[in-house]
Amino acid sequence: MAPASPAPPAPPPAPSPPPAAPARRLLPLVLPALVVGVVCALILLGVSLLAERLQDVLWETLPDALGVGRYSSLWMVAMLTATGLAVGLALRAVPGRGGPDPATTGLVDAPMRPGVVPGLLLVTVLALAGGVSLGPENPITAANVALAFWLGRRFAPGAPGELWVALAAAGTIGALFGTPIAAALILSETLASQPGPGAFWDRLFAPLAAGAAGALTMSLIAEPSFDLSLPAYSGPHWGDLLAALLIASAGALLGLLAVYAFPVAHRVFAALRHPVLALTAGGLVLGLLGALGGHLTLFKGLDEVKVLAEDPDGWSAAEFAGMAVVKAAALTVAATCGFRGGRIFPAVFAGVALGFCAHALVDAVPPSLAVSCAVLGILLAVTRQGWVSLFTAAVLVSDASVLPLLCAATLPAWLLVTGRPQMQLDGDGKPLR
């Protein structure tokens, strides 16, 4: 039998098309990024305005009509307890129960179902208006991410889902802080650890556009400001360096106390086995803490820190320390009993109060330095994000001369918090590391 003839050689593979130029890939993302950023800012603005109107009714109109002191201990306990009950009943009624357990969520998570968003926004408004010590950042970001992901996959199915998550997160964070720099810093820590095509700034291009759109929209409408208008810092001195290291470390230790109490408090409220009961009990505890620390320790804390900054000498060191500890405890209780909300803004209040405590103890420590270093330390412990902690601490005083000392103060504070548990639990109720 004749041997079989050899098979003809396979044709060479067709050459792959050259990759598109980076500019041609990035330009089509500008319009959707701008739209997402604007919509995220409008949703944040709408929720904030609605919460403010309801807050005026609950804390001014209603107690005045009843002849009760607006911020009397009785009214704080009654209102926070009623807020817990209302949020618990609302979570029972709304689709999706307001999303996952808030103790297990971070600032930017995987998108939830869009049907959960209305209920999540409802309970967020109730908590913000009722005086709960949580900010709007986590639930608003989750809502915007869910909507952007759902609409983006519906109208642009060819785009990767991660794009819509990044755009919504950047737009919301830019609107929250009034600047896209905050969004860029937060996302840079995530993008730097994720492999992906293109240069780092190529991947940051569209989120930065969304963050800029969100920040500009919020700034043009609401003009947000984090500047506490503290006395200008005169410049670094050797004594200031020691003070910065100690105050930032003290802030980190206060934050770590809250972090280690976090899973314990969560187990206590989970043992009640009913969300309505847990939230009502949590509201009662928050009311008692408010009665102990004063009405400035209620709410998310952004407006309240400005009250402290208007009169840094209006309270004693012990009173400032009490407010810092009470606010850290209120943050822990609110985030573990079931209220939906973020942890950055109440942590900022605790840091500001601690900074003023340091200034009251040692008058030679400039208040701008003390406040920025204390905020830096507690945010490092609570968020475990170095860039956003540095950024927030710096914008509170709007003084570039404190930056070298803040960078130095980051070192001992980071050594204290790195490798420690985070203020977030996994699905089994164990702290993330």
TrEMBL record:
Its main location: membrane. It is a multi-pass membrane protein. It is found in: Membrane. The chain crosses the membrane at residues 26-51, 71-94, 163-188, 200-221, 241-264, 276-298, 318-337, 344-362, 368-383, 390-415. Keywords: Membrane, Transmembrane, Transmembrane helix. One of its GO terms (cellular component) is membrane. Pfam families: Voltage_CLC. CDD domains: Voltage_gated_ClC. This is Ion channel protein. It comes from Streptomyces californicus.
